[in-house]
Amino acid sequence: MHKKQKYYIGLANTFHDPAIALVNSDGQVLFAEASERPLQQKRAFCSPADVRQVVRNILKEYCDPRGEFVLVKPWSSKMQNFMDLMGLLGSTNHEMIPRRPERMTKFLCTKDVLFSTLWIQYAGFKQSGGHVADILKTEFRNSRVSFVKVPHHHAHAANACFTSPFEKAACVVIDGQGEWGSMSYFAYEQGRLRPVYQVKGPESLGIVYGLCTEFCGFNIEKGEEWKLMGLAPYGQLDPEVLTALRGLVRVDGLSIRYPALPEIEGWFKRMKAKARTSDMTALQVADLAFTSQFFYAEVMDQLLNNFFQHSISDNLVLGGGCGLNSSYNGEIVRRTKFKHLHVPSAPADDGNALGSALLAYYQDHPEAKPKAEVHSPFLGSSMSKGTIENLATFGGLHKLRHLPGSIHRETARLLADGKLVGWVQGRAEFGPRALGNRSILADPRPADMKDKINSRVKFREEFRPFAPSILDEFGDEYFENYQVSPYMERTLKFKEAAKAKVPAIVHVNATGRLQSVRREWNPLYYDLIRAFWELTGVPMLLNTSFNIMGKPIIHSVEDAIGLFYTTGLDALVLEDYLIEK
Amino acid sequence: MSASEKFYFGLSNSLHDPAMAVVSSDGEVLYAEASERLLQHKRAMGLTADLRETVRHVIKEYCSPQAEFVVAKPLSRRVDNVLRWLTLVGATDHERLPRRDGKMTKFMIENYLLFALTWQAYSSIQISGGNIADILRTEFGNDKVSYVRFDHHLAHAANASFTSPFEDAACVIVDGYGEGGAISYFEYKGGRLKERHRVKGEASLGFLYGICTNLCGFSSEKGEEWKLMGLAPYGKLDPEVLDTFHSLVKVDGLSIKYRSLPHIKAWFERMKPKARTDGASPLEAADVAYTTQFYYAEVMTQLLNNFYALGISDNLTLGGGCGLNSSYNGQITDLTPFKRVHVPCAPADDGNALGTALLAYYQDHPERRPTAAVQTPFLGASLSGRTLANLVKFGRMNNVRHLPETVHQETARLLAEGKLVGWVQGRAEFGPRALGNRSILADPRPVDMKDRINSLVKFREEFRPFAPSILDEYGDDYFENYQPSPYMERTLTFKESAGQKVPAIIHVNRTGRLQSVRREWNPAYYDLIKAFYDITGVPMLLNTSFNIMGKPIIHSVEDAIGLFYTTGLDALVLEDYLIEK
Asked: Read out DSSP for A166-181?
């Protein structure tokens, strides 16, 4: 009677953004979370995808210990064998880093950086996957374990397509660097992915965007491409920068090309003259940011239009780290021939944990097909119930109220009063955006709300915008050419009339990186915004991730409490407990 | 700064307890901290010693970024080479782990576990050490970085001896496993270490103790050898268990050896019926615990007696993970001819970060010698001043008081009233014990205080004892054959009469793992205990580490606040701020 359960554990084993995902015998996603969350280290460089404590928790919570476990890694055997060879040749020996030459390479980095990357990636490969195998073998003695490897961009494509609301789509994966290239094109149909074209070579739009981020004085290691994107609307086109960028990157069909090395070196020189120096403010490089974003869009338009010519579908699915460019994502439907766009909740390497697990699942189940619908991003950890109870019992908090059934109304009232609220519900979001389960919320109406949150809670730069969560049914009222944006994956333009109502979440170029909220996707969050609408007539909240600058989104009750008392938050909601200061 | 300035970064790159230490050009220890603290992940298995955030912080705070840097690792190059050869035959490839069988090996672990440890050792060597070179090169343009290696046990010996108050000493290292063996003997004289004997082979007293820890239903991976040690006094000698040890291990001079593989298998068979069953009370395993501790003491005493016979010194320094056996440490001067014992604050692998940095320093400075004095254990991170300021500014807590001159008096008063206080001052302790800078403190007089803390704050098993911090000058009043114990490294027996005054910190066998406090070692903590003494006449506080079960000691203001409100602590002291519930 007992059916043998089979589990697919996806392990994003890149050196940055390691993550783990779990899919069961029915193709259901049971869990997905990046290692940065439990470790509370932004991007969790050099950490394993399979953090031992997390592995133990999810095996106990979700798995039959007698099951069969398939451990899936989103890098192919070929790639891992190549790294092993590099290892044997000593190219991954980090003790050589200080002695590597600083010569420029076609990867747009110097040779020493290239070697650092080889080392750190090799270490990532060695590390991730062994912990879950070890724990299964030692602590789940009746389990069976095997390893599968899938190509990196296939995993991105699977994550993007298998979670899309489309039956059929053209899929583009663009990231920093995958296996032998940074762009891949797929046709998605009948629940299957067919590779159409793979770009090979060092060229990478993601890397160029990253370099521009660095020229603007931000840090790609910390993933601050966001800042470049947020800064861009403050600037205008700098023709010199545009010429420089056009001289570096040339679109050729579905590929991009770089010139020869001397010209690359010339490009660096020209860009460095434009780069932000330590005495400059961010706004002083706004033109550089604007032009970088402008150029990114220009190249993407060409690539996407060229891909559209393959007549695969009117639907586009976008994966890889560049899928996080929400400014451009919001323009795709307007600027290219594609009619619909889907970007998953975690398009970057963390998402490959899910992508690879799903890929392995569907390889094993050729008869099964992913559901064409919006998939839940709420796949991470829940708050410990025991710790919340301890907080209620031991906290000695005079202003703690337990409000089952009315927590959304009480919170909406506080928000309408202008209070800043930390809002923690259910399972954490998978991907970089807080979508109403690990969010800091505020009233979008006061003009000074943005500055208030930046200076009192997030302690971040004042130029950075905040995003709105809007009830889907009001989308058309507020946005031009409204598109549904369930994961805050796209930025749209506000309607002129609507703008003045919600100044705190309107960026300088009249856009907002919105989250569309439907009751079926997140009932409590919907009810909260609805309650706020009933009080204020505004179907929208300012929603920013529950963290402070430089740290990942909070993970535990303790993290939430720690952040609550060390910032200017006025209230904290943990499940149906409300704490006020 | 001077052109010759040089910083020595020591890294503990074992698979468990990674840590980093920094020594200056003058031999001063600038910093030492285990990775588990920042990551808030107990023992930080599979994580890196040189966490990027920490490296950046340490370089900026303590070093001149353009100086020379030496990165020292406590593992010989020979081990790297062996592991690299093993890589060639796939022996470090964790994907082969599931196919390894469960045959018992001479290391007393199954074949697959041995394989898992080999993989983890290799993976840890890869992951730790590259970040320093990478960050110095890419962020500070500094490639003056060199790497040096030392034998694992030599690093333990350096950590134990160079930080000792002795000019000369006999030094013994006993751990789980080093390079080719688990016990080594050194002679320490004139600031130099000379190897006297090295036990080669599989036999390991540390490992055996860990296996017995697991048999008692605890986890050696989580470092729960403590629990076995705490449980032991509840039990009595089980002659059958003792006999199994005798038939397993041969002690010969300075060496120990396991008998043949069939003996190992027979040992497991005989111990099986003695093991704690799932769900049974720990007290069921008390006799096994007692007998294990008894046997550990028996073997150690033989080895130490035999080593003493070499006539090196009356002083003993003890390093390696077994140096954490405080129960035995307190008995050494009674049971062996050694007159004085020093155990460093971090004798286990985390301490090797410091040991190896000191070795590199003294190798470069043959003319210098360590100071023979008690060295400070307060080498870790401080609380962020900014976050503390934010707490005061934004926390809006009713009961916060800033008491720059009187925080010790006010805290002593609260303690004397029976309040549970979290006490956070200055820099964190290096090593597993909280020594008055990251401590939970309480009045040792009430009989029910132990149960209160176990159930209200630490959420841990009731059999586990709490330790006292005592003003050194009162040591003789309270303890038989008092010895100063600056790092809580030894357990002593209370005097019959004195013991009744402080029931909360007296273990069932009338012992206490005391910390001796002198004003010169920790003025703020001394003043606090003194103030408590002025009120109560008791020169002693109950001192337990500021964490909850299963988590490391808190690291940040946020961690402290999070723990404060989710446990039954009554007050929290952060530097000179006092917060009450």
From this structure: -SEEEEEEE-S--SS-
Answer whether residue B1 shows pLDDT above 80.
no
Whether B46 and chain A come into contact, CB under 8 Å, resolves to yes
B120 touches chain A (CB under 8 A): yes
* Helical H segments across B371-522, by residue range: 385-394, 407-416, 449-453, 475-478, 496-499
Q: What's the predicted TM-score (pTM) here?
A: 0.96
Instruction: Give the pLDDT confidence of B151-171 residue by residue, as tens digits.
Output: 999 999 999 999 999 999 999
Q: Render pLDDT for A241-265 as a digit per residue (tens, 0 to 9).
A: 999 999 999 999 999 999 999 999 9
Q: Are the C-beta atoms of residues A535 and A549 closer than 8 Å to each other?
A: no
Q: Note whether B396 contacts A: Cβ–Cβ < 8 A.
A: yes
Phi-psi region of A170 (alpha: psi -120 to 50; beta: other; left: phi over 0): beta
The pLDDT assigned to A313 comes to 98
> A367: Cβ–Cβ under 8 A, 6 or more apart, which residues?
none
Comparing CB atoms, the residue among A84, A138, A566 nearest residue B395 is: A566
One-character DSSP codes across A126-187: HHTTHHHHHHHHHH-TT-EEEEEE--HHHHHHHHHHHTSS-SEEEEEEE-S--SS-SEEEEE
- Sequence-separated contacts (24+) of A524-529 with Cβ below 8 Å: A524/A407, A524/A408, A524/A425, A524/A426, A524/A436, A525/A425, A525/A435, A525/A436, A525/A437, A525/A469, A526/A471, A527/A408, A528/A408, A528/A411, A528/A412, A528/A423, A528/A436, A528/A441, A529/A412, A529/A469, A529/A470, A529/A471
Q: Could you say which of B39, B97, B562 has the minimum Cβ distance to residue A39?
A: B39
Alpha-carbon distance B120 to nearest alpha carbon in chain A (angstroms): 7
What angle separates helix B385-394 from helix B557-565, to the nearest 10 degrees? 40
Please give the single-letter amino acid code of residue A117.
T
Residue B112 pLDDT? 94
> What is the number of H-type helices and E-type strands within chain A?
21, 21
Could you give the angle at which helices B111-127 and B77-88 cross, rounded to 10 degrees? 120
pLDDT: which is higher, B498 or B580? B580
Find out whether B70 and B9 touch, Cβ atoms under 8 Å.
Answer: yes
pLDDT exceeds 70 at position B273: yes
The alpha carbon of residue A184 is apart from the nearest alpha carbon of chain B, in Å, by: 28
C-alpha distance from residue A496 to each of A480, A499, A500, A501, B6 (Å): 9, 5, 8, 10, 61
pLDDT tens-digit map of A453-465: 998 998 888 888 9
Answer whether B18's CB lies under 8 Å from B11's CB: yes
The encoded tokens of residue B473 equal 């000058």
The token pair at B59 is 């370089």
pLDDT band of B406, cuts 50, 70, 90: very high
ipTM for the whole complex: 0.94
Which of B39, B398, B560 is opposite residue A41, by nearest beta carbon?
B39
Look up residue B52 and give its two tokens.
């990027």
Q: In Å, what is the CA distance from A571 to each residue of A387, A568, A577, B24, B546?
A: 18, 9, 10, 46, 27
Contact flag A566-B144 (C-beta cutoff 8 Å): no
B447 min Cα distance to partner chain A (Å): 22
The pLDDT score that the predictor gives to residue A298 is 98
pLDDT value for B3: 52
Pairing of the two strands B492-493 and A571-574: unpaired
Where do the DSSP E strands lie in A24-125? 29-34, 68-73
pLDDT < 70 positions in chain A: 1-2
Q: For A516, how many CA atoms within 13 A lie in the half-sphere containing its CB?
A: 20
Average pLDDT, chain B: 95
- Looking at residue B547, what DSSP letter applies? S
How remote is the C-alpha of B544 from its chain's centroid?
14
- Can you tell me the distance from the alpha carbon of A481 to that of A129, in angstroms, rounded to the nearest whole number? 45
A455 or B410, greater pLDDT: B410
